[in-house]
Amino acid sequence: MLKIVEKNEKECTLCGACETTCSTFYFKEDDRLKSSIQVLEASENGDPVINVCNQCGNCIDVCPVEAIKRTGKGTVVISKKACVGCFNCVGVCPTDTMYWHEDLTEPFKCISCSRCTKECPTEAIFMEEVATN
Amino acid sequence: MGITTEELRASRKVLAEFDYEPAEIEKGYSGKSLYINLTDLTIKPKDITEQMKEIFIGGKGFGLWYLWNAVKPSTKWSDPENEIVISSGPIGGITQYPGSGKSLVVTLSPLTNSVMDSNVGGYFGPYLKFSGWDALEVQGKADQDVVVFIDGDRGKITIEKMELDPGASHLVSEQLTDMFAESEKDKKNISIVSTGSGADNTLIGLLNFSFYDLRRKAPRLKQAGRGGIGTVFREKNLAALVVRYSSLSGRSNNPADPSTIAKTGVKLAREINKFDDEQFRMRQIGTANLMTPMNDYDLLPVNNFKFGSHEDAVKISSDVLRSKFTQNMPDGCWVGCALSCCKAVDNFELKTGPFKGDKVIVDGPEYETAAGLGSNCGIFDPDHIIEANFYCDTYGIDTISTGTITAFAMECYENGVINKEITGGLELSFGSADAAMELIHQMGQGRGFGKIAGLGVRRMKHFFVDEYGADEAFLEDIGMENKGLEYSQYQAKESLAQQGGYAMTNKGPQHDEAWLIFMDMVNKQLPTFEKKAEALHYFPMFRTWFGLMGLCKLPWNDIIPESNKDADRPELIPEHVQNYVDIFNAVTGKQIDKDEMIRQSERVYNFQRVFNLRLGFGTREHDAAPYRALGPVTEEEYESRAERYDNQLRDDVGINPEGMSTADKVKKMREYRESRYEQLIDVVYKRRGWTTNGIPTIGHLCELGIDFPEVIETVKNKL
Amino acid sequence: MVSVNGIEIEWQEEMTVQKLLQIMNYTFPMIVVTVNGIPVDRAQWPVYMVPDKSVVQAHHLIAGG
Ligand code: SF4
Ligand code: SF4
To answer: Which of B89, B196, B306, C39 is the most buried (most CB within 10 A)?
Structure first.
């Protein structure tokens, strides 16, 4: 019963509430570059682009120290303790949603906690159940 | 093999111990090195001076400096004062930039009697540094087999004896990993340096550096293969070196500017992810991706470097080897190497030898191994190559030397220089896989003809001449060694620049200084002597740099960035060179540029040349190449590429080959090629700042800032 | 005649870059091609015609084994 953050980019107003929520909760500061969901202005059709992990798990296979696991619920999570900060997972991520920040030794990613979706004023992001394999 | 982990643990007896507070790592250095003397069981720390960091940088530079101070001009490889020095380098151990975990090993070689260096993966070097030691020097000789254990977690070093059979490296690595790890999880924090019985029985012994593969749940072995370092290790009665360090993080190397490192590393990791599958497929096949192109370009050594391709090479092509390797594993020899070239064959059932029937993990085969143990011996059977690879590693003998030695023996056999009586029944003709395999077992176990083969090509030549009256000139022509080291596995006949890239090296004919064949032979980028000399200056210097830093060469040019399309000099891979400059600065907080990078190498490179000189080598005569490396020795070789050679006689030499006998053509071709090689030496020496005898000039040494009194004195005596 | 990395070979009708590389047995995965100084993208190889008397550079991008 995997839930992921889904998006309806048309509705996004670029207010940044999701970014603030995420980075404030996990890093105790309001810095959009430390948010696991990041919103970009430009896209070809004019809509904003919302970058957030779809829990595909490609990163799991490349981690040399097996620091990335899929939880029972299907979410892909990093064990900070095990991680050695090599960023191989960042390099391999097909959606560019395994993030890194210059202040931080380890990468970070969305763990489907749903906090951001609750703060989005336009329902441009929401939780959705997807099939797991 | 018999002993259990508990029995092994119970048999441990500490002979000497030393407690220490691991030094904090500061900008890539711990500032300390560890000295161990096995004769009197001394364990003591030394300070790394600022001057050492400035001039010798780290890695191989530190190794050379310590070894220089440890030995005398008369020291032999087997003397107790010879050292094995292991050091990674200031960049070694960062996890963000692919290829940053190498260890450099330096010693006096039993093959060359001069300085040897080897660049090897596995976790030992980085863990050693993070345990507080930029370098480890091992001197002296123990009176019984000992294991040295460096516990970076506890700050404790012990020299111990135990009931360990040091005969098979894969077992030694497994047993010691099991015993020293405090839990299953702790295994990844252990790295072992070991070898096998082949190192006791030959002069081509290697060292295996382990890393624990979490997915395969077994230690993997990476080889410091060249020059008999493992033989020195066993001469000292070392059974193994063990390090344990459990706090690895992205900041263990404590760099000055982590953000630049991360940025540069992520950029490269993305590049690899994007382009590797369409470029060299390092992640799928590793260096064995070269098998097919080398054969296609007539560069794959066949039958002791007689030829460069073979119709059966399809049987050991890149794709055949790919099908043997387990895919989609993060096969990095250090954490974070996104290029992950260390492929392995899993569950391989051995058909011969002491482990017959066992299902094992085989690390590799890499290109050199497949070419050396395969095509160069006329053997085109992938399973033979894999089996031979496994046994070479576990016996602790170098696959490259083993390949070239076997190929040489086979040519001698086919020419009647040696026969079945001499080989003890081995039918060593090209292509005889069973005989080749048996020869490996004989070398590994010190039996029969293996005892002679294990001495290496140079000594075999002398032995065959002295004992069996062989034609010395012929053996000098076909014995593929220079300075006593066996050639690595590329056919260099059609690239003059590469002939120099092999024979004008510091340690002997290994291609790690320069690989110029495509630039020279295919792209025709080096048409003049001056251009060749420039390449034979730049590339050896540039590539020396990896060994000062603890870096791997592969992520430099085995992945090509997009920017290379517009680069002025694409062969340099300018974007990656800049990455290295940026990373060095980001680790150390210094400010070098790409010219200073070459200078850093030039210092160490010239120092190594002088070191050779000090030991009685390092002059022009030692840069001579066997003619097999320069051109066709035999009529058979000439005829096999007659059109090519005839054209060269006509166009390059200015002789009309029509009506000439093949023997005459071989002779004319030889005169031409040998004189070209001599001309090349002249130009290269000049470019490197050396005399026509290959000795660095005093002016050049002063300019480089390595004008230490003993260096100058060494040079003065030889000028 | 076409010159490829300084080697003269016979020109043929319908000679694409791809054909030319095949004739030369240039199988290496990383080659940068210019025809009379003009870079030709890999994607264009099957269709890009090499005129007679061209000077072709097929630059193999490997600096090291
Ligand atoms: S950065 Fe951490 S989680 Fe990502 S691959 Fe490296 S060790 Fe694994
Ligand atoms: S490219 Fe290969 S040899 Fe080099 S560091 Fe990576 S895994 Fe090791």
So the answer is: B89
Q: Under a CB-based contact definition with an 8 Å cutoff, are residues B674 and B627 in contact? A: yes
* β-pair partners for B429: none
Chain B residues with beta carbon closer than 8 angstroms to that of A63 = 330
Task: State the chains in contact with B (3 or more Cβ–Cβ pairs under 8 Å).
Answer: A, C
In a domain, B642, yes or no: yes
Residues β-bridged to residue B139: B37
Find the domain containing B96 and state its range: 5-244
> Is pLDDT of B262 > 90?
yes
- Strands (DSSP E) contained in B140-228 are 146-151, 156-161, 190-194, 207-213, 218-224
Nearest beta carbon to residue C61 from set B490, B514, B570: B570
Q: How far apart are CA B558 and CA B605, in angstroms?
A: 24
Q: Residue A119 and residue B3: Cα distance in Å, rounded?
A: 63
- Tell me which chain A residue has its CA closest to the CA of residue B252: A84
Cα torsion angle, B386, B388, B389, B394, sign: positive
Which whole number is the average pLDDT over B234-248?
98
Counting CB pairs under 8 A, whether chains C and A reach 3 or more, is no
Residue numbers in C near B522 (CB within 8 A): 5, 26, 58, 60
SS3 B571: helix
Averaged pLDDT for residues B537-559: 97
Residue B294 covered by a domain: yes
> What is the four-CA torsion angle of B103, B106, B110, B113, rounded to 10 degrees?
150
Average pLDDT over residues B642-654: 97
- The separation between CA A28 and the C-alpha centre of its own chain, rounded to angstroms, equals 17
What is the CATH classification number for the domain harbouring B105? 3.60.9.10
Exposure letters B538-575 (e unless 16+ CB within 10 A, then b): bbbbbbbbbbbbbbbbbbbbbbbbeebeebeebbbbbb
**What is the tally of structural domains in chain B?**
3
Is the separation of the CB atoms in A21 and A34 below 8 Å?
no
> What is residue A133's predicted lDDT score, i.e. its pLDDT?
56
Is B125 within 8 Å of B133 (Cβ atoms)? no
Q: What percent of chain C has pLDDT over 70?
A: 95
Residues 6+ apart with CB under 8 A from B658: none
CB B8 within 8 A of CB B179: yes
Centre a 10 Å sphere on the Cβ of residue B466 and count the other Cβ atoms it contains. Answer: 10
- Which residues, in sequence order, are CB contacts of B301 under 8 Å at separation 6+? B307, B308, B371, B372, B375, B376, B407, B489, B490, B491
Q: Compute the distance between CA of residue B63 and CA of residue B59 in angstroms, rounded to an integer.
A: 6
CA of B345 to the centre of ligand 2 (A): 17
Q: Which residue has the tokens 């993305």?
A: B270
State both tokens at B25: 């790592």
| DSSP output for chain A | -EEEEEE-GGG-----HHHHHHHHHHHSS--GGG-SEEEES--TTS--EEEE-----HHHHH-TT--EEE-TTS-EEE-TTT-----HHHHH-TTS-SB--TT-SS-B------HHHHH-TT-SEEEEEE---
Cis peptide before B365 (omega within 30 of 0): yes
Does the pTM surpass 0.90? The reply is yes
What is the rounded distance in angstroms from the CA atom of residue B341 to the CA atom of residue B334?
Answer: 11
ipTM: 0.94
User: Do B439 and B541 have their domain in common?
Assistant: no
Q: What residues make up the domain containing A86?
A: 2-130
Nearest to B519 by CA among B499, B502, B497, B501: B497
**Domains of chain C with bracketed CATH:** 2-60 (3.10.20.30)
Distance of alpha carbon B390 from its chain centroid, rounded? Answer: 17
